[in-house]
Amino acid sequence: MLEEIRHKIMDRNVEMRKFVDTWISDISPMASLALEENKVYARDCQVRFNGQFGYEILDGHYRHIIDIRKKTCICRTWQLRGIPSQHVVLAYQHAGQDPEDHVVHWYRKDTFMKAYNYFIQPIPNMKMWPHTSDIVIEPPEPKQMPDRPPKCRRKSKDEPRKKYGKLSRRGIKMTCSKCHQQGHNNKACKYVPGSSTQPASSSQPASSSQPQSLRQPIGYSQPPSSSVGSSQPPSSRQPRSCSQPPSSDQLRVQQALEKAGKSGEKRGRGDDDTSSITRGQCEEEVGEEKEHQHQHEETKGQRLWDLASTLMI
């Protein structure tokens, strides 16, 4: 690669020195073309001279001030480019001078030749270089780093760091595939199907942390385990363990009977007919209360099911 650069510089120096011989004037062709365009634009301007060094050029609705001694124009084109603008051209024509003589020196032929005044000397082949007795400097040996070698290629500065067309998952809530809850994945899920932590019947209120409440609303998959007004005798029901407390329905009926018994004793109605009527009324009231609670649970379960469907969508 270095040899190619050396050859290119040698050829360019020769071409640029030949290009200078094609110039018509003392300034470069680009500067000469810009100056000729400004001479054409200067025909539409008007000039006023103050008698010393100042000129006032009228260019349409604008008035430009020029000082030929300081070589300044209010449009600042002369100061920035180094080529006289149409206002400066008109001022020098009014003064009887050639505007080409006032072009800055870096557009001239002698300045251009100074840039290519140095030559690249030819060198022989590397095999023909003279051998020296100096110590040969070798590159350092590769050192094995303690970590694993990198597999990915190091990207350059102009290469994109990320692939386009792929959306980032940052800010998206993960959903567990087991319990369909958000905030964790199936690896960190603590829900075990068939465990003792799940509710045995649908009579208990459904909590937001139970996965079954999100799959289907309460009351549609399982009917209530027991009803107060059923004709099934108590002896045919499944026996409970000693450690399991009585259900909430039985506690409510028992409390209502005790309350009704106390009120009946106070009134003097302790016969069997009165006690049977009182027990039936208590069971009917408890059944209505349970039905109302069951409807509330169905409504709550339906809301949870709609919320879960919306989140999964």
From TrEMBL:
Q: Where is the Zinc finger PMZ-type domain?
A: 71-98
What is the name attached to this protein's record? Zinc finger PMZ-type domain-containing protein
Which Gene Ontology molecular-function terms are recorded? Answer: zinc ion binding
Organism, by scientific name, is: Solanum commersonii
Read off the SMART domains from this record: ZnF_PMZ
List all Low complexity biased stretches: 193-213, 221-248
Matching entries from InterPro entries are given as: Znf_PMZ
> In which residue ranges is the amino acid composition biased (Basic and acidic residues)?
140-162, 259-272, 289-302
Region described as Disordered = 137-169, 184-302
Q: Recall the taxonomic lineage recorded for the source organism.
A: Eukaryota, Viridiplantae, Streptophyta, Embryophyta, Tracheophyta
Cross-referenced PANTHER family, in alphabetical order? POLYPROTEIN, PUTATIVE-RELATED, SWIM-TYPE DOMAIN-CONTAINING PROTEIN
Lineage top rank: taxon: Eukaryota
